[in-house]
Amino acid sequence: MAEALTRAAAAELGVPLDVHSAGTEATRVKADAVTVMAELGLDLSTHHSKTLFDVPDPQNFEYVITVCDSAAEACPVYPGRTRRRHYPFVDPSGGSLERWRAVRDQLSTRMRAFVQALRDGQDAPPSYDHSPAVEVA
């Protein structure tokens, strides 16, 4: 979801970004993620889960953003030019569509702020430590 939301924000704000998403292990794109993203007009039906071995030139990213604590802990060390950010979110897996929507909307806000900062020539917003609360079950 973060990849698609970042791409959408970049397109909307006119920021040319090359965005890739990868996890610590390849699993699958969850049906609930496909459903809630389709509500925004973003099609994840052809997306697939990837690891860093599946993305182009993984050692030359400008930014690496982790969205869960386990990914932040497992994230490899990057060369000096790569800046890491940790924006943790509650994993909506196993929750209701309302929980998925809440996390989607939080991700959208955070990724948009990230893209806006880059558009404005600023450094990306800083990392933070705690996942935003998800108010729904």
TrEMBL record:
* Statement: the UniProt record of this protein carries the keyword Oxidoreductase: no
Q: One Pfam family of this protein, by short name?
A: LMWPc
InterPro entries on file: Ptyr_pPase, Ptyr_pPase_sf
Q: Which residues form the Phosphotyrosine protein phosphatase I domain?
A: 1-117
Q: Which residues form the signal peptide?
A: none
Q: List the CDD domains hit by this protein, alphabetically.
A: LMWP_ArsC
Gene3D superfamilies hit by this protein: 3.40.50.2300
What is the protein name given in its UniProt record?
Answer: Phosphotyrosine protein phosphatase I domain-containing protein
Lineage of this protein's species?
A: Bacteria, Thermotogati, Deinococcota, Deinococci, Deinococcales
